[in-house]
Amino acid sequence: MLLVFYRERGCLPRVHASSGKSFANHLNFNDRMRIQNFIANYAETHAVFLPGRIPGFKRDDLQLLPSSETKANVWRRYKLATEESGYRVVAISTFWKVLNAVCPFIICHRPMTDVCWQCQKNNCLLYRSANLPDNEKAARCQLQQAHLEQVNRE
């Protein structure tokens, strides 16, 4: 049905059936491209890249926004930049719908995944040490502590 419509009339914006007017809040191509460009630029400067697959996600090409940044904070930065440029600002729900549709590989991640690869391995060892003797638990804790001290020195 939609294929026939597009072949007959081409790609047109949606029009209200009874009044023949287009929707006032219709997101046009330029608005969508501005959102996409903002998100891509923001992710390029702020994204955290962790090696390997992220727990809870099937993709391994994810760009993770820092856990200190919420979705609302990213949208506020977008809103501020767009208002300064004099362009139309979209609502936060529309902003994230565009993000999920166009850039599904850019996500805000939970604080538990905001660690380096070595920390993840050490944490995994600590989680699995529940039924081990105390000396092995202590050795694993010391391994993680040594890594954290090294990171603090860097």
Structure, explained:
- Helices cover 54% and strands 4% of the residues.
- It is mainly alpha-helical.
- It has 2 domains: 87 residues, no CATH class; 40 residues.
- It has a two-stranded parallel ribbon with strand order 1-2.
- It starts with a helix and ends with a helix.
- The mean pLDDT is 78.
Feature tags:
6 helices, single chain, 4% strand, two-stranded parallel ribbon, 154 residues, elongated, mainly alpha
Q: Helices and strands: which structural class?
A: mainly alpha
Radius of gyration: 23 Å
The main sheet comes to: 2 strands, parallel
Regions with pLDDT < 50 over 5+ consecutive residues? none
In helices, the fraction of residues equals 40-55%
How does the overall form come out from the CA principal axes?
Answer: elongated
Strand order of the largest sheet: 1-2
Average of pLDDT? 78
For the termini, the CA-CA separation is 61 Å
Sheet-strand content, in percent, reads under 5%
SSE pattern? HHEHHEHH
Number of helices: 6
Tally the beta strands.
Answer: 2
- How many domain units? 2
In brief:
The chain has six helices and two strands, in the order ααβααβαα. The protein is mainly alpha-helical.
Write the layout of secondary structure elements.
Blueprint: H1 2-9, H2 29-46, E1 63-65, H3 71-85, H4 92-102, E2 106-108, H5 117-127, H6 134-153
Parallel strand pairs: 1-2
Helix pairs in contact: 2-4, 5-6
